[in-house]
Amino acid sequence: MADKREKTTDQMKLWKESRGKQQPDVLTTGGGHPIGDKLNLQTAGPKGPLLVQDVVFTDEMAHFDRERIPERVVHAKGAGAFGYFEVTHDITRYCKAKVFEHVGKTTPIAVRFSTVAGESGKKETYVNVGRYNICGRPNSVVFISSQNVYFFVLHVFERSSIDCLQVSFLFSDRGLPDGHRHMNGYGSHTFKLVNAKGECVYCKFHYKTDQGIKNLSVEEAERLASTDPDYAIGDLFNAIANGNYPSWTFYIQVMTFEQAEKFQFNPFDLTKIWPHKEYPLIPVGKMVLNRNPFNYFAEVEQMAFDPSNMPPGIEPSPDKMLQGRLFSYPDTHRHRLGANYLQIPVNCPYRARVANYQRDGPMCMSDNQGGAPNYYPNSFSAPEIQSHCVESKFKVHPDVARYNSSDEDNVTQVRTFYTQVLNEEQRQRLCQNMAGSLKGAQLFIQKRMVENLKAVHSDYASRVQALLDKFNEEADKNASVHVYTRPGASTIAASKKCNI
């Protein structure tokens, strides 16, 4: 009879099989000393107290007390996998980055998929000039365009009423992807590509799933949330373990500086998309995931993605959110993993030799660069600059001020999505999902959201309002008031209409 167990339930069996006929290792303490008895404590007699000298116990307990590290502020729960990126099309006319230097080149990658609160993945490539990280999402836009507002949104994420294209994406069918394998990935931010001649263009990154887009119904998602909350993680693990390696095709969109100056809206606003008719997708390569993590904590929980990890040929644009993340991400990692987080194997740029003037710090796991000088410049043949790696020049003309972009057009692309991208059934599900989420909000919040939807399309607003009216009417009928008197007195529950 064939074994139908999922690979996620057989991880220990798979680990044992990977060892072949090797004998079990000698059990040791953290210091490497062999242990003669692991199950029984040293005590003064069979009923006596513990002894401080029982280092087997104290070694185990002290480590247990410290084995949890701070979880990520956002993207706390996720899945990870490893594989490779292969270049299939030449884009050296746009970018000199080594990862794209010729067709057929392959580069090892690490990927982590996660939710924001509590949709996005991040891709990392280990190139021979360091690490390259792409911070991305399963939708091409995000909620807000200002980094200064970002952490407020994260603090109240599930109750936020911010209105933009991403809200409509989130409540549409696209908001419930059927696992990580069946969703696209988008770099969200605008980046700058630089070629070997020093010529620059702006670009956006896209990963299109080769498995096809598949989404869950609300009912199926609710069932999985209660019966299999790790469904997406398990689906990815099982696919890779069974040799069904998921893949994504990588594209870029390109915009010249001149086009950016004349663009109808701010091209660095990541709440909006670049129309594909004007800026078509250019194929670049393929990402394939073919290895599960050997150990979740070591290779996934300790992964530290950082959009400031950009090899020569890829640079930041004026994107406000990107500029904020260039500082925020590495700063978070230093808090969560320590000052030397880049020495952790999964984060180490192992294909490049790290040579700098950074020394010491907690958990230094390297040779600390030996006796090399820790100051620059010096006269002792220590690391020198590479002039060909200097960033491209760019001009900045405007006055420095705190600019508010809230008066920009935030509805046209939402209207296009609602009227032209979605069909009738998808529009109805979008409105049902949105009303279902809004029904628990304060009435003035509901009204404010409906007013925002009116600016997008009257049909959008009227459908959501009709559904909210129905929900609110049912809530009024079923509402109960609980009156609590002094301690010990009985509780009176009366069904009546509530105006809260």
Automatic annotation (TrEMBL):
SMART domains referenced in this protein's UniProt entry, alphabetically: Catalase
Subcellular location: Peroxisome matrix
Protein name: Catalase
Main location: other
Key word Kinase present: no
Any single Pfam family the record assigns to this protein: Catalase
Primary role: Catalyzes the degradation of hydrogen peroxide (H(2)O(2)) generated by peroxisomal oxidases to water and oxygen, thereby protecting cells from the toxic effects of hydrogen peroxide.
